[in-house]
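Renewal narrative, Specific Aim 1. Our central claim is that a sequence can be written position by position from structural information alone. The example that follows is taken directly from our test logs and has not been curated for this report. It begins with the structure tokens describing the chain, in the order in which they were read.
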């Protein structure tokens, strides 16, 4: 279900202050928590339950994004952003008011988004990537997306000059190792490959910690 409740709290899975694999340039990346679409074969089923997310105040998140002068924009993915459209709208309005660019991923098809908040979010997007992940159409030949039915829509001129370059780019990932030894991977790879890489890198990080202790 698309979100209908008015709230200034957003449930998130993760927030990455700077990434280079979720769209053009350096961007902040916001992964919302909760998805009612639940595609078969989804690569991030751990983002489905909203109640397992971290509640954050929209104003605080906006302050963090706007005070980061290293980034040119924000990418929102999930989970399903449109399930929390009313909480997201003021955040994304503030992001665009600051001159930052906006990319939103949604598992809904553009034509299915009819509620006022969802429509307003689409009006703010420079790029909208829409459509559910469909396992039977799995295709990693385009950057950022995993199935052939999904569309990358350039809704403003902001990245028009980069269109060919972006569409012909390769999938990329980033790996982060935190001080507590946790390994985080963002970006897109086939699920099995991603899980194998996560296991391998987590195992090596644990070995390193044991060697040092
Ligand atoms: S819309 Fe995205 S997060 Fe939701 S089930 Fe589909 S692939 Fe997973």
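The sequence written for that structure reads:
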């Amino acid at each position: 279900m698309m979100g209908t409740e008015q709230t200034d709290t957003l449930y998130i899975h993760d927030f990455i202050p700077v990434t280079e694999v979720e769209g053009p340039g350096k961007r902040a990346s916001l992964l919302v928590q909760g998805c009612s679409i639940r595609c078969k074969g989804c690569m991030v089923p751990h983002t489905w339950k909203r109640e397992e997310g971290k509640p954050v105040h929209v104003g605080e998140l906006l302050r963090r994004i706007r005070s980061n002068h290293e980034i040119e924009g924000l990418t929102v993915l999930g989970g399903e952003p449109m399930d929390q459209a009313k909480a997201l709208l003021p955040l994304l309005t503030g992001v665009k008011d600051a001159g930052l660019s906006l990319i939103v991923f949604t598992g809904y098809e553009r034509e299915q988004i009819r509620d006022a908040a969802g429509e307003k979010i689409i009006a703010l997007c420079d790029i909208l990537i829409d459509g559910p992940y469909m396992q039977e159409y799995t295709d990693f030949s385009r950057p950022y997306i995993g199935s052939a039915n999904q569309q990358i829509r350039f809704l403003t001129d902001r990245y028009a000059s980069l269109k060919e370059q972006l569409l012909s780019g390769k999938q990329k990932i980033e790996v982060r190792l935190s001080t507590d030894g946790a390994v985080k991977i963002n970006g897109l790879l086939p699920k099995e490959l991603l899980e194998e890489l996560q296991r391998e890198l987590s195992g090596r990080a644990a070995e390193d910690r044991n060697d040092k202790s």
